[in-house]
Amino acid sequence: MxxxxxxxxxxxxxxxxxxxxxxxxxxxxxxxxxxxxxHEGNGDELILYNLGIGGESTxxxxxxxxxxxxxxxxxxxxxxxxxxxxxxLAEKEGVKIVNAEQFKxxxxxxxxxxxxxxxxIYLVSILPFAQKVDGVVVSSGKLRTNxxxxxxxxxxxxxxxxESLTYIDFYSAFLEDKEILLSADxxxxxxKGYGMMAEIAIPIIEKYL
Length: 209
Prior knowledge:
Layout lengths: L3 E8 L1 H4 L9 H14 L5 E8 L5 H14 L6 E6 L7 E2 L2 E2 L3 H15 L5 E5 L11 E2 L4 E3 L1 H18 L2 E3 L1 H6 L2 H4 L9 H16 L3
Parallel strand pairs: 1-2, 1-3, 3-6, 6-9
Antiparallel strand pairs: 4-5, 4-8, 7-8
């Protein structure tokens, strides 16, 4: 008997796929791949939910995560992806949206929320920013730096080690070619960047198909 597993992608606008009018972002590319594989008769059904919300921080995540998990809980099992940090590490009017210490507490709390629903929890790295927005206050009023990306990604890696999770390293894949993989705003990927993210994520998804 075939199983029906759910994949839940929690995140911000990069999870949602903002600025990708062609493919809808990396999660939607992966979603179509899983659907196609199922219709071709290649194993179990994997239903993926894009739960990305633009502008969201880990503070916002913790408010909605219990309800989202309860509403989408497959008896055959769930895979949970947690992709945050680009908003948390930003400063607005000189104040960090979520400081590093609180970020670690929030991600750890999110993992604890996810535990009863899944044995397969993935933490997703924060992407580097383009040079033109590194340390610059942008139109949204936010200031981000690549130095802080390194700090917050290390927090994610530490939690992965402490909690025996899996880390998805999009950061390293983008670092060298970030200027051609990011959109004009210097924060979100363009179609090429989202495509690369999907290429990295598909082998992970294939394990559950």
